[in-house]
């Protein structure tokens, strides 16, 4: 068994793809779902999976995120440099980087165009 993708719905596919490309993911493919929707798959460059699937349902302009959704987590080599690059695109962290426990990885959260939380974790020798 393997995890192949995570999916959630977006309201503006161009804006969402641009956000995730800014984070470092690459657009892989688009698959239409009849006349009602399109799926857009993104992934980490050089890695076959897992992927992030964004579904755009034509004519739907908002969704309720719900209380069960947590976040998607991505690792980055240099959190400060990543945040500086994102700031240039108008993307700000919810709060400054922090660690959850002594010796743990530095992390922070940003929100995508549909307000989904994205955790950015700085890579270290430790597990997250």
Please describe the structure with a list of short key phrases separated by commas or semicolons:
four-stranded mixed sheet; 8 strands; 2,3-Dihydroxybiphenyl 1,2-Dioxygenase, domain 1; alpha/beta; single chain; 128 residues; 16% helix; 2 domains
Q: Can you identify the CATH superfamily of the largest domain?
A: 2,3-Dihydroxybiphenyl 1,2-Dioxygenase, domain 1
Number of strands: 8
Helical proportion, percent range: 10-25%
Order of helices and strands: EHEEEEHEEE
What structural class do you assign from the helix and strand content?
Answer: alpha/beta
Major sheet size, sense and barrel closure: 4 strands, mixed
**Count, helices:** 2
Radius of gyration (Å): 15 Å
Shape: globular
Poorly predicted runs are none
* Residue-averaged pLDDT: 92
Beta fraction: 35-45%
CATH class bucket of the largest domain: Alpha Beta
Question: What fold name goes in the CATH topology slot of the largest domain?
Answer: 2,3-Dihydroxybiphenyl 1,2-Dioxygenase, domain 1
> What CATH architecture of the largest domain do you see?
Roll
Distance between the termini: 23 Å
Total domain count: 2
- The strands making up the biggest β-sheet line up spatially as 1-4-3-2
